[in-house]
Amino acid sequence: MLQIKLPDGSIKEYPEGTSPREVAAGIGKRLAEAAVAAVANGAIVDLDRPIEHGESNGDPVELRLLTSRDREALDVLRHSTAHIMARAIMRLFPGVRLAFGPTTANGYYYDVEVDGRSISEDDFPAIETEMARITKDAEPFERFMLPVDQARTFVADLGQTLKVEHIDDELHKYGILSFYRQGEFVDLCRGPHIPHAGKVGAFKLLSIAGSYWKGQTDRSMLQRIYGTAFFDKKELDAYLAQVEEARKRDHRKLGKELNLFTISPLVGPGLILWMPKGAIIRGILENFMKTELMKRGYFPVYTPHIGKIELYKTSGHYPYYKDSQFPTLKMPADASAKELLDGLIAGNVDDAAQRVLLGKAGIPERLPDPASETKFTKPFFEMSVAERIGYLEQTCEFEEYLLKPMNCPHHIQIYAAQPRSYRDLPLRLAEFGTVYRYEQSGELSGMTRVRGFTQDDAHLFCTHEQVRGEFRATMELTQFVLSSLGLSDYRVRLSKHDPEDPKYKGAEGDVWRNAEDDIRSVLDEMKLPYDEAAGEAAFYGPKADFIVRDCIGRQWQLGTVQLDYVLPERFGLEYVGADNHPHRPVMIHRAPFGSMERFMGILIEHFAGAFPLWLAPEQVRVLPISDKAADYAQKVLNKLTEAGFRASLDHRPEKIGAKIRDAQLEKIPVMFVVGAKEAENESVAYRDRLAGDLGVMPLSQALARIQTETDERVFHQTATAAAPPPTEESGEQHAY
Questions:
Q1: Helix, strand counts (H, E) of the chain
Q2: Residues near 695 by Cβ (< 8 Å), separated by ≥ 6?
Q3: Residue 193 counted as an annotated binding residue
Q4: What is the CATH number of domain 2-67?
Q5: 179 forms bridges with which residues in the sheet?
Q6: CB contact at 8 A, 559 and 592
Q7: Is 545 helix (H, G, I), strand (E, B) or coil?
Q8: Residue 596 contacts by C-beta under 8 Å, 6 or more apart in sequence?
Q9: Fold of 279-308+403-607
């Protein structure tokens, strides 16, 4: 008999070969009808797949039935919809070759290859019509297995050459492969799937893009068709409304319209140029953070943009980030050798000068030939220029520098620059430090994925006894920063190591377990709800990540606090304890903003470019009704600037309606409209960008109002679209 443990803790016995559907039917008819898949011992499986035994020790199989209310069920639905889409495409375009069709965070895609033509968005209505026919027929998804040799022959007979190649490249190591059949459509697939196509409540094709087979540029170019699906049409409508709202809020579009930032092809892709208005917002954010840090006992530091490669090899950043770093800067350690090498490359140094520089650098004019014990290499001055350059590269001692990928190794060197006592700890070092990563061009996206970015970085060095208190304080700082910016809808993720991932080599020891326990203890003490995620930790330690939900329902990882026992060990950091013996400090890494570029991009979209009064690059615009009020308008502007507000005067010879409209389009929070009556009474007509006309009030009252709103950092609701339930930013799933 098969023992099954249900979510309520009860254990029941079933015959061998029992399926989740049969378990559901035994519980109740309605559950059997609502179930779409199941989770057996942590793995998602088809509803009709026989339940396999648990571990060899005879433990019961833990079973959880999935319905449309479960997030995992939505992934299963979307993967099945990818099959439905592929089936519809093959009906409309005979000879299509299929690649992969995984789920994504908010939908699915399928990569296809079509001979003789390209699929375009104009084809979407026809594809969707065919998909609707398939879902209406509600044919089942049927799983079957074949030995790998038979599986290869099977897909070859179907003309699916990409699947054949995938079996030859990777899947041949498995003895048996699984397939899913739905009507005439058969696909090599790991699964799982919904019971039948009729479970799909609503779907939509979204876009199309190019992609390379297996992501390799030397392989076939395919077409990637994106779509999404839900159990209910209301959920689809809400999601499409969110997508449309996100399109309107796209920071790349608004950043250009509002002159906040630009990217120049001459400077380079992924390198942000902050324009004056954007720089004002960044400066406000930086000053806000710096003021708060001074209150909390942090010390400011500055570090260079580059460092010797040995620094990052010691820290581990060089091997870990090697594939996403700019090439190293390599130059001779000796100044004379560098001058000689530069002169040879430029062709502006003669033989006499070369001889002098060789002597200063201590470089012999010839060396013993490594291929012979008695011969020497060709004399330097008998070599060609290219040979001389090669000779110098062989004989000179070179230094290598790297554009820094992280600030922490630099802060570690500041800590190590002088002896430390336990009385000096905790030591909190903070910097707005710029770092560099060579992201692939296809991964760059406005301000949210760049090659150079500035982190509001800080590193705390503390004793073991201080860890939990300091970690809590950094968590509270992050909470304060996010709530001050209107980003109070968030959840916390405890990002742990993955014992199967080689980047966490050595993480199975007590040090990592203790670090994860420390974070867990702080989160529990703060009564912060959190989930745990294996494989999301930094390579040097676990962390608490803040996953923030913006006003239209999207989720972003922003602030992070990391606990690190590893880097102090790598660099041999010490402090003298109360026992007069050396001890190893613990490091805490924290960045509430994350990166200024990415944070700015998210803020632009969160506020739809309409920043609150305290953060807006232009807070108030004075709008004279006519030239008769020009002098008074200038007086009002002077009062605003004297009080420290960012204000301007619209003195154009336009009608007041046009001036108000333009200020609205430029998202100015407050407008002071002035005419002859206002000039006579020392008043202004106060106009709020969102609330509209608030009436005439004395100038002093208007100034006090904006001062209060600025001091209290008031926010106005900017969301205009209903958001669907939050979704995980998960990676691709269910791909063979």
A1: 23, 32
A2: 685, 686
A3: no
A4: 3.10.20.30
A5: 144, 188
A6: yes
A7: strand
A8: 282, 285, 286, 432, 453, 454, 455, 456
A9: BirA Bifunctional Protein; domain 2 (3.30.930)
Please name every residue paired with 158 in a beta bridge, in sequence order, or none if there are none: none
Identify the bridge partners of residue 146 per DSSP, sorted by sequence position. Answer: 177
What is the third-level CATH fold of 613-712?
A: Rossmann fold (3.40.50)
pLDDT in the model for residue 507? 56
Order across the sheet with 329-332: list the strands.
Answer: 306-308, 398-403, 329-332
What does the alpha-carbon distance between residue 603 and residue 610 come to, in Å, rounded to a whole number?
Answer: 10
E-state strands within 451-511: 452-462, 490-496
% helix, strand, coil for the chain, step of 5 = 40, 25, 35
**CATH 3.10.20.30 domain locations along the chain:** 2-67
Distance between CA 497 and CA 722 in Å, rounded? 36
CATH topology of domain 73-248: Threonyl-tRNA Synthetase; Chain A, domain 2 (3.30.980)
To the question of whether residue 411 is assigned a binding role by annotation, the answer is: no
User: Does the annotation place 408 within a ligand binding site?
Assistant: yes
pLDDT value of position 533: 84
- Kindly report, as residue ranges, where domains of CATH 3.30.980.10 are found in the chain: 73-248
Unique residue bearing structure tokens 């992050």: 478
Q: Coil, strand, or helix at residue 236?
A: helix
Which amino acid belongs to residue 286?
A: E
Per-residue tokens: 357: 């520089």
If we measure between CA atoms, which residue out of 200, 211, 191, 235 comes closest to residue 128?
200
Domain(s) labelled CATH 3.30.930.10 in the chain stretch across 279-308+403-607
Q: Which residues pair with 198 in a beta bridge?
A: none
Q: What is the mean pLDDT of each run of 10 residues along the chain (736 residues)?
A: 89 91 92 93 92 68 93 94 97 93 92 89 96 96 96 95 93 92 95 95 94 83 94 94 89 95 94 97 96 96 95 85 82 90 90 92 82 74 89 87 93 97 97 92 86 95 95 95 89 84 64 86 93 82 89 83 91 96 95 93 92 96 94 96 96 94 95 95 94 94 96 71 42 47
Q: Which residues contact 79 (CB under 8 A, 6 or more apart)?
A: 101, 102, 103, 108, 191, 192, 193, 733, 734
For residue 676, give Cα distances in angstroms to 325, 552, 591, 658, 680.
62, 43, 51, 19, 6
Taking the CA atoms of residue 571, residue 576, residue 582 and residue 585 in that order, the dihedral angle to the nearest 10 degrees is -40
Positions annotated as catalytic residues are: 408, 437, 455, 457, 459, 543, 589
What is the Cα–Cα distance from 261 to 616, expressed in whole angstroms?
15
Give pLDDT, residue 721.
41
User: Residue 283 in contact with residue 456, Cβ under 8 Å?
Assistant: no
Omega prior to 192 cis, within 30 of 0: yes
